[in-house]
Predict the 3D structure of the following.
Amino acid sequence: MKIQVPRNMLAVRQHSPDGKPVVETIPVPQPGKGEVLVRMAASPINPSDLALLKGGYLDRNYPFTPGLEGSGMVVGSGGGLMAGMRNGKRVACTPNPEADGTWAEFMVTSAMRTIPLPPSVTLEQGSMMVVNPMTAMAFLHMAKTGKHPAMVNNAAASALGKMLIRLSAAHGIPLINIVRNSTHVEVLKDMGATYVLNSQDRLFESELTTLASELGATLFLDAVAGHHSSQLLSAAPSGSTLVSYARLSGDPMNVDPGQLIVGDKRLTGFQLGNWLQTKGLLFKLTFINRVKKQLSDALSSQISQTFFLEDVENAITQYTGNMSNGKVLLLSNQKD
């Protein structure tokens, strides 16, 4: 069935760093060669989206449409083999670098940034396929190829953290999970997590140091930054690697260089797009297929609430105050 594409659409727009996101009517973008037009169905709110809205370490030109991932149907092609093959397909998608994102009724992106969804995956689940599932799988790959006996993650109650719990258990890699309150401790233990530490406990740092040493945990995943980075490095055994992949605290990383020098410890950053660019085409295709197969299992995400684009402010407020309760999705008003 051919989809009638309107001239204008609704889109969330931000006009300045940390400015209020507003919903505006703007022209529907036109795809160029190798690009497709996606009629958006759903887009999640991720911590990386919140960082982008704050105008922190991810710089943008303004105004722009936020949204780093989503799902929908390809309804137009700008020409080219891959773009033509995607036409009419249900896809997960990400925006072109520095281009407008997924929080809109339509989005133009490279055909290479779309992933066809199997019939068994709903558009809502498919909208969350890229950022968290692929990052979780990337961390598992890093643990295996780096021969790290165990891992540590300090955002364990997040959607990504819960994926890591399921993946690490399935692959026999011990995972030390760090949360911020006792409620999260019980939730993660109920879902099968073996090692859960509360960063607010008085003995947290000594417990982390002891447990990391006993398990040989040498891959530390840091989503918080600030003084938490220093805590992780201090507890890490010699030869460990700390991977910074978010800044949930909003604070700059606070690290004692002595921890790196004396303990032969390494500090590196992780951004999914950059990591994938270092991989060959065959690896990417295999990697994506592995993610697809586990979307309804180990890599599934709980959805707590859905909002239409016009209610983006309430959606952001709901997600920011209840990030461990599940994902909040923005839905397009577009109908067949």
Remarks:
- The first strand starts at residue 8 and ends at 13.
- The CA atoms of residues 8 and 27 lie 4 Å apart.
- The chain has two domains: 8-128+301-331, 131-274.
